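check these tokens.
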Amino acid sequence: MSLQRTKLFENALLGRKEATFLFKDAAGMLTRSQAIKMVATDLGVKEENVMTMVIKGKHGTRDVVGTFYVFDEMKAAKAQLPEYYFLRSMPKDERKKYFDEQRKSKAKKLAPAQQKK
């Protein structure tokens, strides 16, 4: 599996770089975390600053095309992107813990409201 940068655009207004990469013969084998690691090493940035926007296969080939945003600060990323982009970049076990905590907090908020009736 090889990596080829096809486009790199620096968006100074939003404080990010928008990069498109071609992953040769990676269809069915590439995960988001692997793609982020490869992009971060190619651009020389921290993995935490790379966000995956789109990863899709090219029709008729085993190649995969990915679009990534590389932020200078994660503060800018949190202001610009919806929360689900951050959730889908988490490992499955951490994501499960996050959703369990969310369910517990909702249950605690609903319990006092139900007792007042």
User: Anything to note?
Assistant: The chain has two domains: 2-81, 90-117. The radius of gyration is 18 Å.
